[in-house]
């Protein structure tokens, strides 16, 4: 599970960092394409976070059912 957590943390860091960078570029240059990319990467960060949480919770459920 540790490898999975590291992979999810790296993916979350990349998507969230990319969203922040794109938003900063939008604020600096006022080009609408950067805000669209920031929104897309933000949605990706939410997706990664929710997938991570879901796997953690259901992994515990399956582990508990197996070892009951």
Describe the structure in your own words.
The model has no long low-confidence stretch (mean pLDDT 97). The chain is an all-alpha fold and 68 residues long. The protein is 93% helix and 0% strand. The longest helix is centred in the C-terminal third of the chain and has 35 residues, at 32-66. The protein has helices spanning 2-29, 32-66. Helix 1 runs antiparallel to helix 2.
Multimerization status: single chain
Biggest β-sheet: count, sense, barrel? Answer: none
Rg, Cα atoms, Å: 16 Å
DSSP helix fraction: over 70%
Overall form: elongated
Count of separate DSSP helical elements: 2
Mean pLDDT: 97
The total of beta strands comes to: 0
Q: Into which percentage range does the β-strand content fall?
A: under 5%
Instruction: Give start-end ranges of low-pLDDT stretches.
Output: none
Alpha-beta content class: mainly alpha
Distance between the termini: 20 Å
């Amino acid at each position: 599970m540790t490898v999975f957590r590291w992979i999810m943390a790296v993916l979350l860091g990349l998507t969230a960092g990319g969203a922040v960078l794109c938003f900063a570029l939008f604020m600096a240059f006022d080009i609408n394409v950067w805000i669209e990319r920031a929104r897309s990467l933000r949605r990706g960060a939410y997706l990664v976070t929710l997938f991570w949480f879901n796997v953690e919770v259901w992994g515990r459920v399956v582990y508990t059912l197996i070892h009951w």
